[in-house]
TrEMBL record:
InterPro entries, alphabetized: MoaB/Mog-like_dom_sf, MoaB/Mog_dom, MoeA-like, MoeA_C_domain_IV, MoeA_C_domain_IV_sf, MoeA_linker/N, MoeA_linker/N_sf
Cofactor field: Mg(2+)
SMART domains from the UniProt entry: MoCF_biosynth (SM00852)
Keywords of the record: Magnesium, Metal-binding, Molybdenum, Molybdenum cofactor biosynthesis, Transferase
Example of a GO biological process term: Mo-molybdopterin cofactor biosynthetic process
Family listed: Belongs to the MoeA family.
Identification of the protein by name: Molybdopterin molybdenumtransferase
Record EC number: 2.10.1.1
Species of provenance: Leucobacter luti
Organism phylogeny: Bacteria, Bacillati, Actinomycetota, Actinomycetes, Micrococcales
Pathway(s) this gene product operates in, as recorded in its UniProt entry: Cofactor biosynthesis; molybdopterin biosynthesis
Length: 431
């Protein structure tokens, strides 16, 4: 039987060239406020057209002053003692007020201009004293540009350092600096950065288009009335959600156990998808529709030293000039889900700007387990209060067990028995 490692290499040989080509395709432009922008991937390097912030502004509600005026007033009050001068109280007349959104105005030397958080610094002022440090400790006389001349005074208990509470132009990023590089995944904070830099539309990588085909006469639509011998289709919603969560654009089809029907579906879709994924119909039974339909077109089917998920298929749907990668998973839901996690998810996560691998940890097994000697067994499980691993039965149909799993525990080939207390590798599943 083929090893998991060998099969993984074959899958990456199919997926990596396809994804590399998609990464170089003409980007899609998505509006900065579009709800689906989060999680997309920047297609090209983006640079700041202007500095961030674009102008010098106040970090606090307070008074903009010239530091020189404070020093001169303090020295006049305590001319013989510089240390005492720095802590001497200073009274200045109130100047013009600048609110957030106002254009910058000249600062009148020798005054204290009320300035609001985010407002442009008055030209000539270089320091902000918070209103809480002033006397009175609230704004009293406010007169913006165009209003009558300001009146009143304000007193400060001491002289702060020059430049305090002033945000310098370009102190976040200078003009021309890189905002985000190609291949970066867009998080809310990164979207905020682009918005703050004035980016209205974001060039992002196109998403991989995946055709997902579930097969089997025994499968009924979710919610439909089942006939005798049928089960509801869990694979399509499960795999569609998994692939969508990995950044793919998924379309779904379902077919019975008729090879010609499946071939028709694949031929019709081949020109408009980047990857085909099937579930079911690849084992050793008499009515294995995927194997029957695809073998003659060069898709290879093999048994892996893996439990669950031993039957696998891969190749290309090469019909009418197309050559679309095809991955074929078993029909049991757990086998199908684990196959997607083992073989497809890493490549798609990498394309989506995320770490390819799930978080890997070494933990202690809470109880003994048995595994087929010549297979790599993947068990679902959870951690107890002491951080020990509890695994559940290896059945490939146990949907409730899969839904409750917090982790995947890996038992390598060559290990038939692990006693309680043994170390075991786990992959932590994301919620």
């Amino acid at each position: 039987m083929r090893t998991v490692t060998a099969h993984t290499a074959l899958v990456r040989g199919l997926l990596d060239p396809m994804l590399a080509e998609l990464a170089q395709a003409t980007p899609e432009h998505v509006g900065i406020g579009h709800p689906e922008l989060a999680g997309r991937v920047i297609a090209i390097d983006l640079t700041a057209a202007t500095p961030l912030p674009p102008f010098e502004n106040s970090q606090m509600d307070g008074y903009a002053v010239r530091h020189r005026d404070l020093l001169e007033a303090a020295e006049a009050a305590e001319p013989a003692d510089p240390a005492a001068a720095r802590s001497a109280s200073i009274t200045l007349p109130i100047g013009r007020t600048v609110a957030a959104g106002d254009a910058p105005i000249p600062h009148a030397p020798g005054t204290a201009s009320p300035v609001m958080t985010g407002a442009a610094m008055p030209v000539g002022a270089d320091t902000v004293i918070p209103v809480e440090r002033a006397n009175p400790a609230h704004f009293t006389e406010l007169s913006r540009a165009g209003d009558p001349e300001p009146s009143g005074t304000v007193t400060f208990a001491s002289t702060p350092p020059r430049g305090e509470f002033v945000r310098a132009r370009g102190s976040d990023l200078p003009a021309g600096a890189t905002l985000l590089t190609a291949g970066t995944r867009l998080t809310p904070a990164r979207i905020g950065l682009l918005a703050g830099a004035g980016v209205a539309e974001v060039p992002v990588r196109v998403r991989p288009r995946v055709l997902l085909v579930a097969t089997g006469d025994e499968v009924a639509d979710p919610g439909a009335i089942r006939t005798a011998g049928q089960i509801h289709d869990a694979n399509t919603p499960l795999l569609a959600a998994l692939l969508t969560g990995l950044g793919a654009e998924v379309r779904t089809r379902r077919t019975g156990d008729t090879a010609a029907e499946l071939q028709h579906i694949l031929t019709a879709a081949a020109e408009s998808v980047d990857l085909i994924v099937t579930s079911g119909g690849i084992s050793a039974g008499a009515y294995e529709v995927v194997r029957d339909a695809l073998t003659e077109y060069g898709v290879e089917f093999a048994g892996l030293a893996l439990q669950p998920g031993g039957p696998q298929g891969l190749g290309r749907w090469a019909v009418n000039g197309s050559a679309v990668p095809v991955l074929c998973f078993p029909g049991n839901p757990v086998s199908s889900a684990l196959s997607a996690e083992l073989f497809v998810a890493p490549a798609l996560r990498g394309y989506a700007g995320r770490p390819e691998a799930l978080p890997v940890e070494q933990r202690t097994l809470a109880h003994e387990l048995h595994s087929p000697l010549h297979k790599h067994q993947v068990r679902r499980g959870r951690l107890d209060a002491d951080g020990r691993v509890h695994v559940t039965a290896p059945g490939s149909h146990l949907l409730a067990d899969l839904a409750a799993a917090e982790l995947l525990a890996h038992v390598p080939v060559g290990v038939e028995h692990l006693p309680a207390g043994s170390p075991i590798e786990i992959w932590r599943l994301h919620d």
